[in-house]
Amino acid sequence: MTPPVRPRRPRYAPPPLPPAAPDVEGPAAVRLEAPLACAACVVEAPEGAFVRMAPGGALCLRCAGFGGLAFLPSGDPALTRRASASAPLAVVALRFNRRRKRFERVGTLLAAAALESARAACAADAEVREARRARDAVRREVADAAYVAAFAAAVRARYPGAPAGAPETIARHACEKASGRVGRTADAKRLDPEKVDLAVVAHVRHAHTGYDALLDARVADKREARDLIRSTVRRTLDAWRAAP
Length: 244
Ligand SMILES: [Zn+2]
What we know:
The chain is an alpha+beta fold. About 45% of the residues lie in helices and about 15% in strands.
């Protein structure tokens, strides 16, 4: 009597690879979350290895024609650019984010030799690039100062009767970096008179009326407070527009 044949249990649970290939330009490979046998050579690719998703199943890098590629994680744009430029083949490395249900780029797979020489080249000119970065930062700083000065001059031209120092205060405030204030908009950068006026009105409202006090005391909401101070703002602007 022959014993009943038990079905062989698989050695591992097949990883839940998403069925569709990700929508990226050029070739892509996906990082495995669990070991998986290559659909062509049947050799098991370990967890963390990259495979290429093909219609017949996942292929190990060798069977996918990506043999000899090394993984370069994202995060060093200069190195990535350099290595990609000299490598004959750059494969986008992805992982599937289960929570967000989408692919995310984790790096690039490149010929190991190209990656090595790019690393060496980056190490060689790291100082040069650092110096260039510092120089660019200074240049931006100077350009910004020039822009603030131009903005202040535009305020002065439209409001010759403004108190001394007010145009500079208005310009500095409106043009503060990353503030999202009126001075950072494209129109303001062309010194559009309307944007200059908006910055002046905002300054007058806060510095020369009871606007902030009304809001702080919660006696009025923004719209009511603006109605209450409108005539004060208008009178102040009229005085500032007139030549001293
Ligand atoms: Zn294979």
